[in-house]
Amino acid sequence: MRHILSIAIAALLIVGCGNQAASTSQPTNTPSIIVDPAELIGSRWNVLTINGQPIIGPNPLPLTIDSASQVSGNGGCNGYGGGITIDGSKLTIGPLVSTLMACAEADLQAQEGSLLQSLEKVRSYQQTETTLSLLDDQGTVVVTLARQP
């Protein structure tokens, strides 16, 4: 009987020690999400991706949130501007207007069109210290931007 009890206690100690070691985890360094509309006003960004695709072309695509109601930028060929509404984590852009210069390259023209369409689909955002992700009504990231230095 003592032999069975000793084996049971030893088994419990081994299992208990094993579970404790397995539950120990390293802290993660996930960036904190900032949802303060005041942080966006006056901020300047460069587009990194449009619908998950990295931008093409030699020049950055800047976007500036000029005020609580105005956004402006450059799509690669044309300047654009329009309204913006920020309410907590909700954000909408548009309608947008742009200059009508033709791009020298068709792929840059297509990218600019995709950017303007994507910006008008934005319904919310997620912001960290260095990035701004613009999401559509399904929660899909449609435009990712990096804060300008």
Automatic annotation (TrEMBL):
Q: Which domain of life is it from?
A: Bacteria
Quote the InterPro entries the UniProt record gives: DUF306_Meta_HslJ, HslJ-like_sf, Hsp_HslJ-like
**Record PROSITE patterns:** PROKAR_LIPOPROTEIN (PS51257)
Instruction: List the signal peptide residues.
Output: 1-21
Q: Does the keyword Plastid apply?
A: no
Query: A Pfam family for this UniProt protein?
Result: META
Keywords for the protein's UniProt record, in alphabetical order: Signal
This protein's record includes keyword NAD: no
Q: Which residues form the DUF306 domain?
A: 38-145
Name the record gives this protein = DUF306 domain-containing protein
Q: Which organism is it from?
A: Herpetosiphon aurantiacus (strain ATCC 23779 / DSM 785 / 114-95)
